[in-house]
TrEMBL record:
GO cellular component: cytoplasm
Cited PANTHER family: GLUTATHIONE S-TRANSFERASE OMEGA-LIKE 1-RELATED, GLUTATHIONYL-HYDROQUINONE REDUCTASE
SUPFAM superfamilies according to UniProt: GST C-terminal domain-like, Thioredoxin-like
Molecular function GO terms recorded: glutathione transferase activity
Protein's UniProt name: Glutathione-dependent reductase
UniProt site (Lowers pKa of active site Cys): Y240, Y283
Classification via InterPro entries: Glutathione-S-Trfase_C-like (IPR010987), Glutathione-S-Trfase_C_sf (IPR036282), Glutathione_S-Trfase (IPR040079), Glutathione_S-Trfase_N (IPR004045), GST_Omega-like_C (IPR047047), GST_Omega/GSH (IPR016639), Thioredoxin-like_sf (IPR036249)
Amino acid sequence: MAGLVNGEWVKGDIADSETKSGSFEREETQFRNWIMPPAESGRYQLFVSYTCPWASRTLIFRKLKGLEDHIPLSIAKPAMGDEGWEYDKPQDAGKHLREVHHHHQLYTATDSDYTGKVSVPILWDRRQGRIVNNESADIIRILNSAFDDLTGNDLDFYPESLRDKIDAWNDLIYPKLNNGVYRAGFAKEQAAYDEAVSEVFEALDRVESHLATRRYLAGVYLTEADWRLFVTLVRFDAAYHGVFKCNIRRIEDYPHLSNYLRELYQWPGVSETVNLEHIKQGYYSIKAVNPTCIVPMGPELDFERAHDRERLPGKGIYQRTGAAQ
Ligand SMILES: N[C@@H](CCC(=O)N[C@@H](CS)C(=O)NCC(=O)O)C(=O)O
């Protein structure tokens, strides 16, 4: 594996320890603390990579919840080096850790004996000099509400009344799509690859037919479930189709999914969280799946093209006060 063992960095292939049986099984995240409101401005910091879909969803929430002035951001280089994720310039993580060169420093500062995978994204506490949470599913829920007193932003991506629907979509989209593409890409046996790719396309087909008649996954409101799907869709044709061999169809070949993807990409602020160059460089530099590390020139993608989603009824993002945006 590549990662930390008792606080020491060990070199190795990404995902090596997660593919022991021939199929890819994602390692559980270990820091799962919460921030209780009222949260302080400038105290928490996000460490991300534009390559990573899990990090991408936290970037989208930071943007849409109006947190850019309150949560400083550190962006790793697009590709991992010999010591995992690293930063172009040393990052200031508060008085306990003034110079972060490698992402693993944040882990050992939190637990000097840490053993496990060193992943982005991280929500970091600058004051205490430790990781609050390194599970993006938690981080987006924290950002969804913990800072609302500070920002006055009452957009709610996980409204009470839609939770059953959102949870049901998350239960499909995480294993079959978000993680499904990785199971395809990192499979070490044909059968594991075949199974994963079939599941990816079955899920895409299902979402395509759902979105033919609904604006968003949970209906008229744009929710967390949509952003969790978006981060995989936006990487699909540029990365997963090629380097992870998810190539039965492209997202461009799906009329509803591709229009839906463009609507979400064009949502104010969202395109700034997507860096296709980093995405291509990041995925194509994973030696285990692309030994030459050559980054392809294509495909040509234009997410700014018009979409047709206005034909479907939509109310935008749910607001806690009850009115839609
Ligand atoms: N459960 C984590 C997963 C994050 C994750 O796996 N990130 C990948 C990048 S896409 C990573 O940093 N991997 C490092 C490694 O495997 O060594 C989350 O959603 O926050």
